[in-house]
Amino acid sequence: MENFHGTTILAVRHKNKLAVAGDGQVTLGASVVKHQARKVRRIYNNKIIVGFAGATADALNLSERLETKLEQYNGNLTRSAVELAKDWRTDKYLRRLEAMMIAADETRLFLISGNGDVIEPDEGFTAIGSGGIAAQAAAAALIMHADLDAREIAEEAMKIAASICIYTNNSVTIEEL
């Protein structure tokens, strides 16, 4: 059985704005099976943006669980992310989920993984997925050397990632706060 591959999710906080971008490509083996998947969404009354890489059902399950934690902790993203990561790492069922997530609100930005990681990047940007390293490097360069806002940086960095990573395309969804 072949595995689905690929996704690039990039979150950029710059000039008091946040943009989270995700490409739309879904690849099975050597074939692209979908071009416009939506891997970036708003949750918790549109106050939180999440982007996910990995198995879609697993990622949606984690997104729903994060939203439940947000409701439980009155929208506190930090506490909710930590509690989700704790459950994800220790629960026998959740440990098998194959996904990573970026979650952000107006003030916080986290990369959350099944290893129990809840990482808040120092620079205000982070990326996950097969093209994540290319998108993150491009975002870093654009922040340092171009006068662009968060959305423009995300758009350009995703174009660069798509030109390098065969599992990333130019059909990009962007959500902003």
Strand order of the largest sheet: 6-7-8-9-10
Strand content: 25-35%
Cα-atom radius of gyration: 15 Å
Roughly how much helix do the residues carry, as a percent range? Answer: 25-40%
Number of helices: 4
Secondary-structure element pattern, one letter each: EEEEEEEHHEEEEHHE
Mean pLDDT, nearest integer?
Answer: 90
Q: Which residues sit in consecutive blocks of at least 5 with pLDDT less than 50?
A: none
| Number of strand elements | 12
Major sheet attributes = 5 strands, antiparallel
Shape: globular
Spatial gap, N to C terminus: 39 Å
- Class by alpha and beta content: alpha+beta
Can you give me a brief rundown of this structure?
This protein has 177 residues and is an alpha+beta fold.
